[in-house]
Please model this.
Amino acid sequence: MPVLTGNEKKYLDNCIDTTYVSSVGAYVNRLEEMVSSATGSGCAVCTSSGTTGLHAALTAVGVGYGDLVVLPTFTFIASANAIRHCGAEPWLFDINPMTWCMDEKQVAQSLREECETLAGQNGKKVVMHSATGRRVAAIMPVYTLGNIPNMVKLRALAEQYGLPLIADAACAIGATFFNPSTGETEQLGQLADLSVLSFNGNKTITCGGGGAVIGRDEEQLSHVRHLTSTARVWPDYDFDEVGFNYRMTNIQAAVGVAQMERLGCFVERKREVRNWYRHSFAKLEDSAGIHVFPDTQGGSCWFSGIVLKEGYGLEQVKEVCSKLKDHGIEARPFWKPVHLQKPYSNSPVARKSISDDWRFVADTLWSRIITLPCSANITDWELDTVSRAVLEIL
Ligand SMILES: *Cc1c(COP(=O)(O)O)cnc(C)c1O
Model:
């Protein structure tokens, strides 16, 4: 549930009063400054949604018709949709059970064993996926729950194969990355070539709907901006490529600015919620094999909840959710992997060609997940009520 008790109303009034309601306005600029400073990216381009931000980012790095993009199968469908919107296809990978993010070791293995790397023009490499004959055009990690995978390794792979690294950071605002090689903390906006945030209604920061593409390369970001604003060459009606109408409006940004003013306390509360559940359900871990969602150091804890023990599935999850509903508590299942979704049932799946007895962590994990209430304004009393109800039911 969004928390809109700050300056949202005041700033919205200002949009109406000044008639700046559309895609030009002071709030869009201000939001971009706030986002780039909060994520350490240096540059930000606000977009109409996370999905359109991903589409623009992938287009900007040259993902096009017939290409493959490395993607974890355990993600919200929008990650795969953005790839398809480019005319490309996701190449689906499993996740690491400790982070719920793409496993860089599997990406390394599949790039090595399932692809052929050829010499292209201008000394560039071309990575061809052997089974489909398609070009691999980008690597797209997803920061599940605001957890960050091993970006040191993924960056090294991207560099080794000459592939752009585009992060789906839709649910990760507030997260930082602990670099295990240097022992240093790295900011969200510095981890990939381009990263994409979402400000949808269910995210930590919302604009009603919206997103942002962030990155450090000013030139690349201005190309993204050009693409998101119909690729118009001002002041005439000249357009130098096929662009999109993906800009954010001043009305959306007004809400976003008010939200960003409270980013710190929203994220802090999200982390407290995770810790609360971790403590409350510690005893269930031994007795019932139930786990609280994993987190990475500096993760933003976007959603929190529990995972039922192995062998259980969607049926039991729905049963628990319905019992919680009787207590007046809203609990839900979570993402169903992309390779199990109808539009992607024929997308290539990594390692299938290496080993026949492959089995995805994501396959047996997703259907045991229950998300619990975790709004940034949840009270201790509510957390206590949820914890008691869960303990009683399980
Ligand atoms: C929310 C989300 C998106 C899509 O963002 P929208 O703003 O809803 O378009 C993409 N990927 C992930 C991982 C998300 O959680």
The radius of gyration is 21 Å.
